[in-house]
C-alpha cells in the first residue's frame, strides 16, 4: 500500500513522466476533455434511454466538424458507416466512447482504419489486469464480432460473446495490423482466429472463453507475436505458423480440455515460447505430422 501510494504521488507530481520523457506533446490525445471535436476522425457514443446500461441510440460525430453524421439504434451499422467512410477516403480513427454497445452483425475494420476504445480504467484481480468502465461490444447472437484488415489497429475494447457469439476477432488474408489492450470473454468457438496473416502484433490481450483462445492452423501465420497475453479457455489451443512467437504469455484451462491436451502444434511450424506459463493445463505439445521413428 505504501509503495502504491508513493507511485501515485510521483505520477501526480510529474516526476515519472519527466524520467521517461512523457509529455503532453509526446503522448497522443484522442479526446480533449469536455470536447467532441478531437484528433479522432469519428467519435461514436451511445445514449441509454431506459436506464438498463445498454446504449439504445448510437451516434457518430465527425471529429473535425463536430457534426453528427450517422445515428440509429443499430450500433454495428453506425460504427460500420463511420469505418466505411474513412476507408473510402484516407483512413483514420474511429473512437468509441465508454458504454455497452450490443452488436447484431459483424463489424469489419477496414484497411487503414483504427477502432479505438476510449482508455478504460484498469484494476488488478488475482494478479491479472481486468478492464472496467470502458467500451464493451457485446454480441446478440451467433456471429463473429470483429473482422480485421490490413494496416489497422484495434485497441482498448471489451469484447463479450454473451455465450452465443462465435469468434471475437477474425483475420483472413490480412497483415500489418495491431491488436492491443483487449479483454475477450464468453465466445463459444474461438476468441482469436487467424488465417493467412503476416506481420501482426498482439499485446495485452486477456481471454476467458467457452471455446479455445487461439486458432492459427487453417492457413499461413507468419511473423506474428503475442506479448503479455493471458488465455483461459476450455478447449485446446490450435497453433501453427512460421515465426509465431509468444512472449510472457499465460496459458490456462478451466477444466481438462476435451481433446486430452492443452495445445497442439500442427504443420511445419516454427513456434517460439519465451517466458510463458502453462498453468492448470495438461501440458502437451501435440503434432499432427505423420513421421516414422527413423525421421
Could you list the spans in which at least 5 consecutive residues all have pLDDT below 50? Answer: 6-12, 15-38, 288-295
Q: Indicate the percent of residues in helices.
A: 10-25%
Overall geometry comes to globular
The succession of helices and strands, N to C, reads HHEEEHEEEEEEEEEEEEEEEEEEEEEE
Structure write-up:
This protein is mostly beta strands and 295 residues long. The chain is built from three helices and 25 strands. It has a 20-stranded mixed sheet that branches. Strands 19-22-25 form a three-stranded parallel sheet, with no helix packed on it. The protein has a two-stranded antiparallel sheet with strand order 8-9. Residues 6-12, 15-38 and 288-295 have low confidence and may be disordered.
List the helices and strands and how they pair.
Blueprint (H helix, E strand, L loop, with lengths): L1 H12 L1 H5 L22 E6 L9 E6 L5 E5 L2 H13 L4 E5 L2 E5 L3 E3 L3 E5 L3 E5 L2 E5 L2 E5 L6 E3 L4 E8 L6 E9 L2 E8 L4 E19 L3 E4 L5 E7 L2 E4 L3 E3 L2 E6 L2 E4 L9 E3 L4 E5 L2 E3 L5 E2 L9
Parallel strand pairs: 1-4, 4-7, 5-10, 6-11, 7-12, 10-12, 11-13, 12-14, 13-15, 14-15, 15-16, 15-17, 15-18, 17-20, 18-21, 19-22, 20-23, 21-24, 22-25
Antiparallel strand pairs: 1-2, 2-3, 8-9
TL;DR?
With 295 residues, the protein is mainly β. It is built from three helices and 25 strands. The longest helix is centred in the N-terminal third of the chain and has 13 residues, at 75-87.
Amino acid at each position: 500500500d505504501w509503495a502504491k501510494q508513493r507511485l501515485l504521488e510521483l505520477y501526480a507530481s510529474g516526476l515519472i513522466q519527466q524520467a521517461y520523457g512523457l509529455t503532453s506533446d509526446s503522448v497522443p490525445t484522442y479526446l480533449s476533455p469536455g470536447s467532441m471535436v478531437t484528433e479522432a476522425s469519428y467519435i461514436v457514443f451511445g445514449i441509454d434511454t431506459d436506464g438498463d446500461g445498454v446504449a439504445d441510440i448510437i451516434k457518430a460525430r465527425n471529429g473535425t466538424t463536430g457534426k453528427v453524421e450517422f445515428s440509429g439504434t443499430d450500433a454495428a451499422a453506425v460504427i460500420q458507416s463511420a469505418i466505411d467512410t474513412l476507408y473510402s477516403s484516407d483512413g483514420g480513427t474511429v473512437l468509441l466512447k465508454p458504454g455497452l454497445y450490443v452488436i447484431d452483425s459483424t463489424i469489419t475494420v477496414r484497411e487503414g482504419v483504427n477502432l479505438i476504445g476510449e482508455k478504460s480504467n484498469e484494476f488488478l484481480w488475482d494478479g491479472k489486469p481486468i478492464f472496467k468502465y470502458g467500451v464493451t461490444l457485446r454480441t446478440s447472437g451467433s456471429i463473429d464480432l470483429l473482422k480485421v484488415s490490413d494496416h489497422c489497429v484495434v485497441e482498448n475494447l471489451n469484447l463479450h460473446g454473451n455465450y452465443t457469439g462465435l469468434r471475437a476477432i477474425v483475420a483472413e488474408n490480412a497483415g500489418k495490423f495491431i491488436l492491443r489492450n483487449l479483454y475477450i470473454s464468453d465466445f463459444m468457438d474461438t476468441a482469436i482466429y487467424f488465417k493467412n496473416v503476416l506481420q501482426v502484433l498482439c499485446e495485452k490481450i486477456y481471454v476467458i472463453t467457452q471455446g479455445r483462445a487461439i486458432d492459427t492452423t487453417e492457413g499461413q501465420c507468419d511473423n506474428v507475436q503475442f506479448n503479455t497475453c493471458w488465455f483461459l479457455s476450455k478447449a485446446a489451443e490450435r497453433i501453427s505458423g512460421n515465426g509465431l512467437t509468444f512472449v510472457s504469455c499465460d496459458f490456462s484451462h478451466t477444466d481438462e480440455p476435451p481433446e486430452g491436451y492443452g495445445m497442439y502444434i500442427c504443420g511445419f511450424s516454427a513456434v517460439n515460447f519465451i517466458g510463458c506459463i502453462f498453468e492448470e493445463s495438461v501440458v502437451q505439445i501435440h503434432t499432427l505430422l505423420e513421421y516414422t521413428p527413423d525421421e
